[in-house]
Amino acid sequence: MRCVRDPKVYERLEHPPGAEAQVDFAKLGRVRYGARMVTTWLFVMTWPHSHWVYEDVVIDQTVPTFLGCIQDAIWASGSAPQRHQKSQCKFSSFLGYVSCSESNAKFASAPI
Question: What is the DSSP secondary-structure string of the chain?
């Protein structure tokens, strides 16, 4: 018996402009915030067509924080995608390549 394989080994993903934004959180670490230690998270929203990225450092993953991050990303980009999708990649593996915006750098270096 001969095994027949599909010769197609990849599938091209199309991302038309404005069609989609991918969102994800990555755990950064614990920092002192006031009198207590808190876990910090990196919120990332990526527009796959242009590879434009918005990032924000937050101290929780609650629904109000999540929706606020999405709203801030939309305001910063100047456009709203037709749909949002949870990112399929594990962003924590790319943390060495994620740049920190000026406001996030100020948050991270603010005196306590």
Answer: ------S----PPP--TTSEEEEEEEEEEEEEETTEEEEEEEEEEEETTTTEEEEEEES---HHHHHHHHHHHHHHHT---SEEEE-SS-GGGGGGGPPPPHHHHHHHH---
Q: Which two tokens stand for residue 70?
A: 């999405």
Tell the residue number behind the tokens 């920092």, with chain if given. Answer: 31
Using only C-alpha atoms, what is the Rg of the chain?
18
pLDDT for 7 beyond 90: no
Residue carrying the six token digits 């069609």: 19
Q: pLDDT tens digit string along 70-102?
A: 999 989 988 878 776 665 544 433 444 344 445
The mean pLDDT of the chain is 76
**Token digits of residue 23:** 């969102």
Q: Is 46 exposed, middle or buried (0-12, 13-18, 19+ CB in 10 A)?
A: buried
pLDDT at 15: 75
